[in-house]
Design brief:
8 strands, single chain, 8-stranded mixed β-sheet
């Protein structure tokens, strides 16, 4: 199973303070805008999204079809195939992708400890 690019999205209290903290750890701005209350920080292949006021809890994200530089990957597992595989293993969904669609879509599941996992395909 190919889950795609991995990142974590953190719900932060103060975007400027969090951005500066991650810069001290060697992360650099990769995408997003402070004015829009989110930035994506990158250090090597590690990606951390910082989001102020957009959601309550931290989110683990997988992007099928993308590499860690937001480049397309050939031979990836489509999000609908991942959803079908997870369903066959009895995983419960918070939101689902319509199976008769193509292209960009997303679904959400929770791990046994209640952590949110977002599978978000952009291609």
């Amino acid at each position: 199973m190919k889950l795609g690019a991995f990142s974590i999205s953190l719900a932060v209290k103060d975007l400027q303070i969090s951005k500066q903290f991650y810069e001290h750890l060697g992360f650099a701005l990769f995408a997003g805008e402070v004015e829009k209350n989110y930035v994506i920080m990158k250090n090597g292949d590690a990606i951390v999204g910082l989001f102020q006021g957009m959601f309550e809890n931290n989110i683990i994200t997988f992007n099928p079809g993308w590499d860690q530089n937001v480049g397309p990957v050939e031979g990836y597992d489509d999000i609908r195939d991942l959803q079908s595989e997870f369903k066959s293993k009895g995983i419960a969904f918070q939101s689902e992708v319509a199976e008769d669609t193509q292209g960009p879509a997303n679904f959400v599941i929770n791990d046994p400890d209640g952590n949110t996992l977002l599978f978000d395909q952009h291609i």
